[in-house]
Design goal:
mainly alpha; Four Helix Bundle (Hemerythrin (Met), subunit A); 0% strand
């Protein structure tokens, strides 16, 4: 399978999980904690797969938009940090007004991040990456299952 298709499939699943997580906020802290933990694990796995893609695509600085991959990597760090912070805050204080604001802030980074990859990064990757590189990315992504 083409790595772009794998990543797009991940994106569809992540959007569904994000919506489920948002709905779980009203189901109490125990259910929410389980959903948040599951979401966190899936996001981290997806980011590991994307890091492989980013590394090969960004090899030799071939992309004309040098800031794009940098920004997307920063998004990864922010999302991972915020998910951990939300989990800790949920355990300590439950769902507070502050927790909800932080969750909304997370989604305001995470969902546009997916859109930006789909609209800017993946088209650039399709133009830039060779068949051999696509195979390498796919093999490496599959090995981190």
């Amino acid at each position: 399978m083409d790595p772009h298709e794998q990543l797009l499939s991940d994106h569809r699943a992540l959007r569904t999980r994000a919506a489920d997580l948002r709905a779980a906020i009203e189901n109490g802290p125990r259910v929410l904690a389980l959903k948040l933990d599951s979401f966190q694990k899936v996001v981290q796995k997806h980011f590991r797969r994307e890091d492989i893609y980013y590394r090969i695509l960004d090899d030799e600085k071939r992309l004309p938009d040098r800031g794009l991959v940098h920004q997307l990597r920063n998004d990864h760090a922010a999302v991972v940090f915020t998910l951990e912070s939300l989990a800790i805050r949920l355990r300590k204080s439950g769902v507070s007004a502050d927790w909800r604001v932080r969750f909304d802030n997370l989604m305001s980074v995470f969902l546009p991040h997916l859109n930006q990859e789909e609209q800017a990064l993946f088209p650039a990757g399709r133009k830039t990456l060779s068949v051999g590189e696509l195979k390498t990315i796919t093999a490496q992504m599959n090995s981190c299952e």
